[in-house]
């Protein structure tokens, strides 16, 4: 089964309905509030947002309610999700927008892509970002130590955090709490706000 076919109605019912849901609307609202608060703290004015792998559209719902002036673009690879929730159908590993965005949300996407596709997707995220990236991707360590294995989709590519950091480093500086600052943004981070500088 190809990835777009995998994320069908049954997948969404299994992972986004009732007690088995990955994140509730309330949880995503708290996350969105925290992320946008940190954007403001770091001096990133959020005018354009791109949500890749937008799923049930919980981030979009929050922005419509709390930041209606923001230009919001949501995409997903799932034919079902696009028809049901109104996203553009895009494959992050093969597509990049010409527009750069102040905030990109990439939650629960990269772990579903094989190594080559995930690498291309990270390059596309880097090319489309001019501010901050909020990234959530389950790693091999997360599978061992963090996730609820009974509620989590385990059919993923379990890579190390180091694998992601190596591919993100040319494009982004890790800020923390899932946030990565685009290098081109030139944000003046205090030393302990961000990851150590790359060794030359």
Could you give a quick summary of the protein structure above?
With 200 residues, this protein is of the alpha/beta class. It has helices at 3-6, 9-16, 25-41, 58-66, 79-85, 115-128, 140-145, 161-168, and strands at residues 48-52, 71-76, 88-89, 101-107, 129-136, 172-176, 179-182.
Backbone shape: globular
Class by helix and strand content? Answer: alpha/beta
Residue runs with pLDDT of under 50 for 5 or more positions: none
Strand content bin: 15-25%
Major beta sheet, strand line-up:
3-2-1-4-5-7-6
Radius of gyration: 16 Å
How confident is the prediction overall: mean pLDDT?
Answer: 90
Count of helical segments?
8
